[in-house]
C-alpha cells in the first residue's frame, strides 16, 4: 500500500547560508519525491536526510516529529515546512486516501537508543510500566496502588531479568519486532543504529516482508551498505545534484566498502 504518494520540497529558498533548513536543501529546492512501498533517502553526513524525514513527518503531523520551532531560526524552518506539500496515495479500490493510518510513526535512532537505555534504568522502566497502565484507562490513584503490589514488582523484575540477557543490538531488534506493525506508514531515521551487520540484514528483510505482504510503507534514511543492499527499495541520492535515484551498489558509501575490502582481499583468500 502506498499511503504517501509524493512530497514536494519548498521552491522558495533563502540563499543566506545561515538559514536553516533552506541552506540544506538549496540544491534540491522544488524537487518532488515519488515514494514506493519502501523508499530510501541516502546521503552522507550533512546531506539533509534526517532533516527531510522530520520535515515530512512534521508536515503530515506524524507522531514522533520534532517541532520545527525547536531548531534555531524557527520562523524559517516553519515557513519551509508550510511551503512544502504532499499527496497521499490510493487504496486498493483506487480511491484517494484521506488520512494516514493511525499507527503511523516517525522513529529516530535516538528513540531506539532511548528504549535500550530505558531497559537499563529501573526508574524509567517503572515509569514506563505505570504510563502503559494509565494509557489503558487506569487512574493515577489506581496506578499508585498498583505500583505497591506484588504483581507490579514481579513484572518489573521479570522484564529486567529478561532484558539483561540482551545486548543493545538484540534489544533494538526486539524493539523493531514489537513496534513495526502491518498496515502503517513508518519514517525511520538510521534504524541500523546498534545493530550488527547480520541484524541489519535481518531488520531489512523484516521491512521487506511488511511492505510486500502486510501493507506497510517505509521511508528510511540510511547509509548502511547492508541495509541498502537488502531492501527492495527506491533509493534517492541526496548527495547528487540534481536529485536522482540510484542503485545501491552505485552509492559512494557502498563503493567505499567495496574498495576497502577489495584492497585487502588477499587476506580473505
From TrEMBL:
<keyword id="KW-0472">Membrane</keyword>
<feature type="domain" description="ABC transporter">
    <location>
        <begin position="37"/>
        <end position="191"/>
    </location>
</feature>
<dbReference type="InterPro" id="IPR003439">
    <property type="entry name" value="ABC_transporter-like_ATP-bd"/>
</dbReference>
<keyword id="KW-0406">Ion transport</keyword>
<keyword id="KW-0813">Transport</keyword>
<keyword id="KW-1003">Cell membrane</keyword>
<protein>
    <submittedName>
        <fullName>AAA family ATPase</fullName>
    </submittedName>
</protein>
<dbReference type="Pfam" id="PF00005">
    <property type="entry name" value="ABC_tran"/>
</dbReference>
<dbReference type="InterPro" id="IPR027417">
    <property type="entry name" value="P-loop_NTPase"/>
</dbReference>
<dbReference type="InterPro" id="IPR051535">
    <property type="entry name" value="Siderophore_ABC-ATPase"/>
</dbReference>
Amino acid at each position: 500500500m502506498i499511503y504517501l504518494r509524493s512530497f514536494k520540497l519548498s521552491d522558495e529558498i533563502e540563499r543566506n547560508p545561515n538559514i536553516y533548513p533552506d541552506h540544506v536543501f538549496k540544491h534540491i529546492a522544488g524537487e518532488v519525491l515519488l515514494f514506493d512501498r519502501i523508499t530510501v533517502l541516502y546521503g552522507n553526513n550533512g546531506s539533509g536526510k534526517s532533516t527531510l524525514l522530520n520535515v515530512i513527518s512534521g508536515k503530515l503531523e506524524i507522531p514522533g516529529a520534532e517541532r520545527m520551532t525547536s531548531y534555531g531560526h524557527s520562523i524559517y524552518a516553519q515557513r519551509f515546512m508550510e511551503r512544502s506539500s504532499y499527496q497521499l496515495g490510493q487504496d486498493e479500490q483506487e480511491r484517494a486516501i484521506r488520512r494516514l493510518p493511525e499507527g503511523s510513526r516517525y522513529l529516530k535512532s535516538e528513540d531506539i537508543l532511548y528504549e535500550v537505555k530505558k531497559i537499563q534504568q529501573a526508574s524509567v522502566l517503572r515509569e514506563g510500566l505505570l504510563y502503559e497502565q494509565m494509557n489503558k484507562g487506569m487512574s493515577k490513584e489506581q496506578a499508585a496502588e498498583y505500583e505497591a503490589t506484588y504483581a507490579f514488582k514481579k513484572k518489573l523484575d521479570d522484564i529486567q531479568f529478561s532484558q539483561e540477557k540482551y545486548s543493545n543490538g538484540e534489544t533494538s531488534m526486539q524493539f523493531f519486532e514489537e513496534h513495526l506493525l502491518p498496515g502503517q506508514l513508518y519514517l525511520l531515521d538510521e534504524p541500523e543504529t546498534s545493530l550488527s551487520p547480520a541484524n541489519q540484514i535481518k531488520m531489512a528483510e523484516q521491512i521487506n516482508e511488511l511492505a510486500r505482504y502486510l501493507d506497510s510503507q517505509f521511508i528510511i534514511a540510511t547509509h548502511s551498505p547492508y541495509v541498502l543492499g537488502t531492501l527492495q527499495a527506491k533509493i534517492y541520492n541526496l548527495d547528487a545534484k540534481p536529485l536522482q535515484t540510484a542503485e545501491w551498489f552505485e552509492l559512494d558509501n557502498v563503493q567505499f566498502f567495496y574498495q576497502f575490502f577489495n584492497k585487502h582481499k588477499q587476506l580473505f583468500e
